[in-house]
Amino acid sequence: MTARYLLVAALFFTHVLSTVAQHTAPYKSTPSEVVTLASKILKEDRQIFIHVPKRDSSNLNKRFPVLYLMDGESHFDMLAQYADYLGRWDVEAIPPMIVVGIVNTKRTRDLTPTESITNYFGKPDTAAVSWMKPSGGNKAFLQFIRDELMPYVNTHYKTQPFSIFAGHSFGGLASVHCLLTQPNLFDAYIAVSPSFWWDNDYVLKLADKTLKPGTTLTKTIFYSDASEGVADNSTYHTNLLKFDALLTEHAPKGLSHQYKYYPAETHMTSPVVAYFDGLRFIFKDWKSR
Amino acid sequence: MTARYLLVAALFFTHVLSTVAQHTAPYKSTPSEVVTLASKILKEDRQIFIHVPKRDSSNLNKRFPVLYLMDGESHFDMLAQYADYLGRWDVEAIPPMIVVGIVNTKRTRDLTPTESITNYFGKPDTAAVSWMKPSGGNKAFLQFIRDELMPYVNTHYKTQPFSIFAGHSFGGLASVHCLLTQPNLFDAYIAVSPSFWWDNDYVLKLADKTLKPGTTLTKTIFYSDASEGVADNSTYHTNLLKFDALLTEHAPKGLSHQYKYYPAETHMTSPVVAYFDGLRFIFKDWKSR
């Protein structure tokens, strides 16, 4: 028994040794940077992840569109990978892009348009230490992007004057809020499962007031939702339908919009397909040659 | 004019300096390794990319399913990112996974089941230096995976006895070929736009012969195609429909299969959604808790 075991073990180790690695090295992907900006507007340091396309030795002065992404700590790897893959010479679905991921400090404060304690279930959140507090700082956050982040990125990287603002959940809400209040800050917007429920549908009502028929808004927006509304029987999905109907009926001149509903995906899986579909939509008319 | 220019320049630089980065550092993503294996079976060195889930300090002995991916140089970053994201505690669509990307040396040789010079258009490729030559080495390639790569991975990494074989185009063909000829090599298979056209639909005919009604095949397979067949008026799409009909009608016992058609995607963009949908399908019944 022991002899047999030793034989098996010997054969096993011989076999393993015969396919031993010659060499193991770290894998190198296109590198990204972490920049820390001292923001005077937000009165705090902000971490920014920045991914640039692979150096094109045939065109060192090439300039790139920029995707500004909220929730950098959550979705930066995904968007950096999409930028690399979809911009590859043999894929060519979008141009190679710079991806700027903004890392949260106080997420609710930065991404919500108003101060509110009305929670997802329409009830006041009265907890002493509420996740909803502080809120309503999106205007200051957009000012940080406009006056501090964008000048930094445009100074230090080879940017083209075409930029996208992309976010998920509260980030989706902030993306739509920016389109409504400062549309010229970006050229295109992606709002994945925007939290329209915030403050009794504040942004949805603002959209209805702002985007009157006859308005001109030469921008592109992609928005989506997943199973949220069905999973919890909330207004998540009906709010998206309302927003889509509003854009379709009021039909601002020049606005290119697409809505996708992913009933098989959850709040957290849908960004995988929605960011892909959003980029595909924004660059649908782009041709590399 | 000069004074005014200097004033503008001064204001500009003051502004830029006021938002200067305090600090720039390299971005760190979950690291991967490059292992070089000296294969006796293939008589050459093979580069393998290996991505392991983030170290879970609460469970250092945790073991993981393994995804073996063909065309490592093309799709490893994508699958490593999907494994990280979809396996995250707040996403939980799939278990955290090890991703093993096999880098090509002679792609046509390794991924095709037969020697053939009948090209995509059904004509003999008679070029002196044909991209189709050599071909027909998939059996040896699967032997390399079984007898050299898998033992290496199982020895050096914390693997679970659940593995997936995933490929695109010729890699999709190789994935189906493996399911038909060595089904027990893997537990689940992903075939994104498999090149069924190879050698006058060799693998499709083999499927018809192999998967007779009443056969037992307790495996999972996801397969898909995109606009290929429409774009070039070829049999690409009808071949996928035939394969799907065959699996549905012959209905091997225990076989779980899903087919997705992405008419809006190209041969090169569809892997983004197909690999995601494939992983979602394979782990549809997986629960983390």
UniProtKB/TrEMBL annotation, chains A, B:
Residues 1-21 form the signal peptide. Belongs to the esterase D family. Keywords: Hydrolase, Signal. The keyword Signal applies. It comes from the Bacteria. The keyword Ribosomal protein does not apply. One of its GO terms (molecular function) is hydrolase activity. InterPro entries: AB_hydrolase_fold, Esterase-like, Siderophore_Hydrolase_D. This is Alpha/beta hydrolase.
